[in-house]
Amino acid sequence: MSTNSERVLPGTGLGAAGARAWPLRDSAHTRALEGSHPAGTGNRSLMEFAGLALARLALAVVPHARTIWVACGPGNNGGDGLEAAAHLQQWGKQVVVSLAHDPEKSSTDAHAAWLKARAAGVSFNDHPPEAFDACLDALFGIGALRPLQGAYADWVACMNAASTPTIAVDLPSGLDADTGAAMPMHVTAQHTLSLLTLKPGLFTGGGRDACGDIWFNDLGVQDSSPPQALLAGPVAITRRLHASHKGTFGDVCIVGGAPGMTGAALLAARSALHGGAGRVFVCPLGAPELTLDPQCPELMFRSFDDLDWSAMTLVAGCGGGQAIAESLPLILGHAKQLVLDADALNHIAHSPVLQQQLAQRPAGHTVITPHPLEAARLLATTAAVVQADRLGAAQSLAERFQCVVVLKGSGTVIAAPGDIPRINPTGNAKLATAGTGDVLAGLVGAHLAAGRPAMQAACEAVYRHGQAADQWQGTVLSASQLCHRT
Ligand SMILES: NC(=O)C1=CN([C@@H]2O[C@H](COP(=O)(O)OP(=O)(O)OC[C@H]3O[C@@H](n4cnc5c(N)ncnc54)[C@H](O)[C@@H]3O)[C@@H](O)[C@H]2O)[C@@H](O)CC1
Ligand SMILES: [K+]
């Protein structure tokens, strides 16, 4: 095995350069994998490999650190920290370890690591050193069970307040490995080294903000079993045939824009056009007099009742307000390919009849793009419940409504019935502004119109949408600027 770890993603706001499709595995699978390799590879335990990989990463990312504080918890996460502490001390660092448990009661491996750290000359102190150049958060990994209290909470506060970097062992303490839900008290690290498996919780919910740069070391254990989720990889550039015409890339029709919300429909339409659709029609429900978008004269304006949209990809919602409600039965019943966003989803959430219509649409032709509150309305729950398990919520929606679901937010989740959910690695907080959701809906429409299967269309559009924000140099990105970049 290599003790060099691989960087999977840089911290938030730094783009997803170099990202590729990684398998993500939950803690139950990780424990089963650990159980099938109790002795690691060769004659070293997995913990010994983990400790060496951690110490090497620390040397690589904080090479000039002299004093390193290692905060160790009572389980094997703490054992990893003790192994790393022994190496770093032997390599000339001044290592201070804090423990709040009796090491005589640790697991066999963690006890052996404690003896090694003592033999190496590591200092032990039950409170953090007055000054330290870097810290290893080895408090809790996949075994964190309850909110952190007492000394553990104090140590987390100390790490988070320090101006020096924290490297989280396996995952930041207080973050749920499977869901990315962060406890009120959790570590905010600059680097996280995920061990043995890459956990889904690092990439969604509170994960990205808590982890910083995400690194991975498989500890020499190869795992070819199906993952519980996938990190979505970059979009392949598709070659457009020379012998193409505007019909080749499909027609998109945007239905939305209730009075005062015409801009939402225009944003979706411009985005579909710049996203590669052959022709884009707009049905602005609140502004029938509108016949031209001067900034995008390619768009064609029609009344919804007069347009033959039966062979088009429809994008419905986009500032549709109350006006979209009366068209939804027709749209759900007859649209060939369909993207449902915002107000369309809110109306569906309130109507069992529309819900049934949605679930009965032909498989593989519908994408819904809810944010957490819209997802909560559809699931008859709260946004907090959705955010506590974003993967689970997206998969439930996909199964219940038999469609592809794009659950927006930090680490957008894309789920389809019977498929492995994807977590998107691109995007940043510049997207947290009005209209970016309309841009995404239009872009999904363009990818569907180009003939992509619904899951692929959704994954590609979400990746490109986030990538455009990652590549944007300014600090503020408006939705209309975003339209042109995707
Ligand atoms: N699973 C694996 O394959 C491997 C695991 N390793 C490490 O071991 C970790 C998992 O070890 P464990 O299962 O021992 O779990 P943890 O080390 O995450 O913690 C579990 C221990 O903490 C206690 N605990 C949980 N929440 C607490 C709280 N709020 N306050 C006080 N005590 C609390 C539990 O009672 C238990 O004793 C991984 O995250 C990883 O760092 C590595 O050694 C290598 C391989
Ligand atoms: K940790």
Summarize the structure.
The chain is α/β, with parallel strands linked by helices. It has helices spanning 27-36, 46-61, 76-90, 108-120, 150-161, 207-211, 262-274, 328-334, 342-349, 352-359, 372-379, 383-388, 390-401, 436-449, 454-471, 479-483; strands at 6-9, 23-24, 67-72, 94-99, 123-124, 134-138, 166-169, 191-195, 213-217, 229-231, 251-256, 279-284, 300-301, 313-316, 337-340, 366-368, 404-407, 413-415, 422-423. Potassium ion is lined by residues 77, 137-141, 168-171, 173.
Tell me what you see in this structure.
With 486 residues, this protein is an alpha/beta fold. The chain has two domains: 6-229, YjeF N-terminal domain (Rossmann fold); 251-483, Ribokinase (UDP-N-acetylmuramoyl-L-alanine:D-glutamate ligase), CATH 3.40.1190.20. 35% of the residues lie in helices and 16% in strands. The protein has helices at 27-36, 46-61, 76-90, 108-120, 150-161, 207-211, 262-274, 328-334, 342-349, 352-359, 372-379, 383-388, 390-401, 436-449, 454-471, 479-483; strands at 6-9, 23-24, 67-72, 94-99, 123-124, 134-138, 166-169, 191-195, 213-217, 229-231, 251-256, 279-284, 300-301, 313-316, 337-340, 366-368, 404-407, 413-415, 422-423. It has an eleven-stranded mixed sheet with strand order 2-10-19-18-17-16-15-14-11-12-13, with helices on both faces. An eight-stranded mixed sheet has the order 1-9-8-7-6-3-4-5, sandwiched between helices. Helix 2 (46-61) packs across helix 3 (76-90) and helix 9 (342-349) packs parallel to helix 11 (372-379). The protein is elongated. The chain starts with 5 loop residues before the first strand and ends with a helix. The mean pLDDT is 93. The structure holds ligand NAX and potassium ion. Ligand NAX binds next to helix 1, helix 2 and helix 3.
